[in-house]
Every structure is written in structure tokens, then in C-alpha cells.
Amino acid sequence: MNILDKYNLNPNQLKAANHINGPALVLAGAGSGKTRILTLRILNLVQSHIAGSEQILALTFTNKAADEIRDRLSNMLGADNLFPWMGTFHSISYKILRIFVNELNPDYKKGFTIYDSSDQTRLLKDTIKSLDLDLDQYPPALIKTIIDGLKNSTPYGEWAIEDKNRKKIIETYQKRLKENNAMDFGDLILNCYELILKSEKVRNYLRKTFQYILVDEYQDTNDIQFKLIKLLLNSEDNLFVVGDDNQLIYGWRGASVDTILNFETLFPKTVIYKLEQNYRSTPQILDVANNLISNNKKKMEKNLWTSNPKGDLVELTSQRSDIAEAEYVANKIKEYSGDYKLSDIAIFYRTNAQSRVLEDQLRKKKIQYKIFGNISFYDRAEIKDLVCYLRLIVNPEDGIAFNRIINTPARGIGAKTLQKLMNLKKEDVSYIDLLYVGVDHKIFSKKSEVLVLKLITAIDTCSISLENGGIISECIEQFLIDLQYQEHLKDEDRVENISEFINVISDYEENINENNLSEFLNSLSISSSVDGLDSSSESITLMTIHLAKGLEFPCVFFVGIEDQIVPHSRTHDDENEIEEERRLCYVAITRAIKKLHLSYANFRKVFGQIIPSGKSRFVEEIANSENILRLDGISTNSGNSSNEEKKVFHYRFGTGCIVYSDDDSIEDVVLVQFDSGFRKKVFVHDLEGS
User: Fold this and answer.
1) Which of 126-135, 169-178, 392-401, 666-675 has the lowest mean pLDDT?
2) Which among 187, 217, 562, 581 is annotated as catalytic?
3) Between these two residues, 237 and 613, which has the higher pLDDT value?
4) Is 34 marked active-site?
């Protein structure tokens, strides 16, 4: 009797788990049981006495995956089999470096430290300052991205950095790491690779130790990780990799679909096993997923299928706006209260900023939720910073707000300078006036004084505009421009979050009779509270698609399937990136077990302005599936041709043409594309025929 017979494997799973010698590629489709196959293949090697647990190297991308495989094996084999070489690429690299630390001399010594992302950023800031370079011109976040990209792809001696100052920063940073006897995460794998490459003693020891190498999520390996794997292989090439080219979604981390596509070329004796039977989803969900991914050109042929019972059709809906889309989702969740527990339901979106409108609607409906792997929209640092700026504009006596924003963006005001400033504070002096006092007393450096005066001017200008009846969202947008706040953020996701916050203000303005920033802030405090939510532990899950990989939920809502969002606007000129965006959608779809809702909005707010959005190209790619129930109505542009041709004049914004009439609004409101380039939602009675 075969050791694996009792585990009820399908024929392809059994063949893969029984593989012993030589290279093997297991193409494991979504929901096909890849973790189970990795586990049982290791079980087979150990129970058949082909290899001891200490002779098997199993590499994963998450500690969770490694722990899951180890726990399963412990239950099957007993606690004596500890599998010391099972873990993530980073943890295994660290272990090798620690064992052979003497080989790293003189660069590193015993007890070296691992710097996390925040340590890395802090050291980069210090490095840039020590070189008398401008942090705004050489932002640490950008330099960090460049360094991470180099360490994911290229050995140290082959780095090519054209910009002289960037090169100087990076070289100095690497030098200071060694002086601190520290490595960042990228160094762990790259130093491990270079150690094994240069030391024959280490290389021979590890090749003798690792008789069998297994890699989970192989499609996500970057160039250096692949070079490390190849270097560890002995002459038998006992490499067993499990992956799915259709689920490669980490190109920005250095992963390339070519790594899995070219596996057979790199290892000519490769045996390929295809796991195409899905145990997770309904046939309807899989059909939609297959229709979508069939449009990718760079892929290995396979077709996911299931023997699961038939389920509901996949519902595709369109809503007039992102707010209407969020309301639709919240109402559906309420409707499903008898069919699904809250923990059975997940909402997926492409970017973090999309969570805000969803959170607002879920709170209104008193639906408990959690943000997976991220913080709530209103708890994000840039949102809290902006709220504190607004609080200070409304209430110049707000010391908490003042302390949060005085050095954000950085103005060179250290603890000693701040203490000097506070010593000048008198009871009847507001914090804005205190800044004037500080300038008069010359407590700031010349550079800081310029930035403080800029802050005072921006606050005064915004306050005057608001007092004169200015539109809050427009005043705050101008305030952020005056502060150069977006330049300070230097991160696309954080800028999108600020844009979304301007939308929050704009939404508020549409439902009030007069502009009042103080009332807005008070309403925000109230609406951000979760006190009114059900206190039970049950909650739905909100997350970006990237974080959803490897998870599954009985009921999934995938929202915002629009061009500019998915595929993301920055990918439109690159076919390889478009294919990765399509794979991202494929991952979202294949997380669903029983029920899947897809949706898009025809109009979406960006920096407070309503702009046409419209469905993603991926929507049309799944439209032919007989398992789609299309509830998205007519095309965004249908029936609007007369509006698009109608020229109008607005007393403030000039001439333009109507692109959208808001029929659902109580007021008579239209969206106008003005010749100046702006799109504005305005009242019809403020327009004249042109």
C-alpha cells in the first residue's frame, strides 16, 4: 500500500506528491490544494526513508505558510521531526548567515542586527543629511525603493546607478550598515547568496545538507532568490516547485512570470504536474475566472475545473457613483444576514483609498467590519495630520493639533526649539500667534523661519477664504498646494488617501446649506466613531486584492472594476503590467467560494471633483461568460450625446459643456467639463446657454 493512498488525492495530486528525484514543476491552480501537496510530498520523502527532515529545505514566502506546513507534518509524523530548514527565504538566509558568520569578516561580526523598514528609512535620512543633500530632492522613500529593487535583482558588484548623488547616498548607506554591524531585509538574501557563491566550503556543506529543495509560490521568486536556489542545488537537481503563473501579482517586488515559464528550459529534465481541479469555488465562479485569464498571452496552458455543485450566477452591477456602489454593497450584506455570517464576507478593492466610502456606508448601516492588513482610513497618518491642520485653522488654541503638525512636513524644528517656543506661550496667545512671536524672537534657523512663515501664510489665507464663504473642499485643496503637502507625502497611495479625504469634504458640502469647517470636523468625529456598531466579534473583512492572495471567503464583493483603478492608471502603457493587473483580478475572483459580486461606478470623486470613470476593459473580457448575470445596464456614455454637445457658460468657471446630469439629485445639478480643463458639479440655475 502506498503511503499516500489514505489521503484521497486525485490522480494528478498523487503523481505530484509521489515525485522523488529530479526537477519538478507543479502548476497548482487556485484552490487546487497546493499546500496539501507540498506537505504530502515531504511526508512521502520522510516516511519512505528517502530523506531525513534535516535534509529537506522548504522555502516559503510567509511565516504563516511555513508554520501551516510544519504543523501538518508534526501531526502526521510526530514532534520529533522538527524540519529545521523550513521557513521563508529571509529566515533561512538569516540562519545560514548566523551559522557562517565568521566567513563574513571583516564586513560583519557575530550578533549582527536586522534593520526593519523604519530603521532603514531612519538610516537613509541620517545618511542624506550627513552628505549635505536635500531630503526633498532625494526622498528616503524613493532611495529605499531603488535599493530594494537592486537587492532583489543584482549582486552588489554589478549595481549601476547613473545619478552621482544617488550613488553616493546608496554607497554611504551600505557602508554605515556595515559600521553598525547591521543588514536590512534585502541584505539577508543577497549576502547569503554572495557568501555561498564565494565560499566553496559553505557551498559544499549546504549542498550536502540539502538533498531535496522545495519552493512554495515559486512564481513570486525574484532574480536573487532564484540565483540562491540554483546555487544550493546539488548535482541531482532535486528541486520541487509549486506555483501558478496566473497568480503572479508581485512584479513590483522583482518577480517575473518568465521565471516559471522558463523553468523547463532551465531544467530540461523537468516533470510538469498540472493541478487543475479546484476544490473551492462553484463552476460559475471558475468559468468567469477562466474567461478573464484566457486573455493573457504570457501563461502556461491549463484550465481550472471543479466537481462542486452548481451555484449562483456571478452578478455584475454598475452604480452611478462610488458612494452608490458602497451603499449597494452595504445593503446586500444586510440582505444576506440570514445566509452568511459577517466573517464569511469580504470586500476587495485595488487601492487603500477606496476603503473610505465603503467604511462610511458600513458604519451607517451599523455593519461591523475590520480592515485586513491595514488601518482604517481615518486612522492613517496623513489623514490624522490633515484633520489636525483643519482643527488648528478652526481653533488656533488647539495644542494637540499644533504639536502634531508643527513639524509635518519637516520644518527643522527640534525638541529644544519647540521648548523655547513653548516658553514664550502666554495664556492669551494662540498657537498661530505664537509662531509670529517665535519669529520675532529669532528662535528659528533661517531655513526653519522661511518654512514657518510659509505655514502661517497658508493658514491665514485658508482662514480668510473660508470666512469669505469659500467652498471648504476648494479652500483645503488650495491650502495643501500652498503647503506643498503632496510633495511631502511622496507616495502614490498616501496622495490618493488625501484625494479621498477631499471627497469626504465634498460629500459633506452637498448635504448642507452653509459651509462650516467646524461643523464638518464635528460630524467627522461622530461618524468616525464605531461606538454604535455591534460589539460582537463577527465582522466582514475589507482588504486590497494583494492581501487577499491565499485566502478564501464564501461571499466576495469585488468593487471599483474601472479603468484607472484596475488596471491601474500607471500600467496602461505596458502590456506586461496590464497582464499582471489581469492576474490581480483573477486572484480576487478565485477567492470566492459560493457568491461573487463584481461592480463598477460610472462616476467617481477625485480631489472633490466628480469625474466619469466607467468600466474596466476586464469587464468586457468576462462579458461573454454564460455565468455572468449582467445588471450593469447601459454603457456609461449611452444617451448622453445631447448633453455632451450642449455648451454652457458659468459666471465663475467660464465656458464648457455638460457631460452628466444628476437625475437622482434633489437639486438640479450637472457635471460640466470647462474649457479651462476643470470638471465641476454645478447648479443648472448658475449656467447660461453659450
Assistant:
1) 666-675
2) 217
3) 237
4) yes
36 as an active site residue: the answer is: no
How long, in residues, is the chain?
Answer: 690
Asked if residues 203 and 233 have their Cβ atoms less than 8 Å apart, the reply is no
> Of 345, 662, 396, 372, which Cα lies nearest the Cα of 546?
372
Q: How many CB atoms lie within 10 A of CB 538?
A: 12
Active site residue 216: yes
Cell 464638518, located at residue? 520
Catalytic residue, chosen from 247, 284, 417, 590, is 247
Instruction: Judge whether 219 counts as a catalytic residue.
Output: no
The one catalytic residue among 216, 322, 359, 382: 216
Q: Which of 280, 583, 591, 604 is catalytic?
A: 591
pLDDT tens by residue, 89-127: 999 999 999 899 999 888 888 878 888 787 898 899 999
- When pLDDT is cut at 50, 70 and 90, the band that residue 506 belongs to is confident
- Confirm whether 544 is a catalytic residue: no
256 burial type by CB count under 10 A (0-12 exposed, 13-18 middle, 19+ buried): buried
Question: Are the CB atoms for 268 and 242 separated by under 8 Å?
Answer: no
Q: Is 217 a catalytic residue?
A: yes
Pairing of strands 647-650, 687-689: antiparallel
The cell numbers describing 562, all together, are 474601472
Q: Given pLDDT bands bounded at 50, 70 and 90, which one contains residue 530?
A: very low
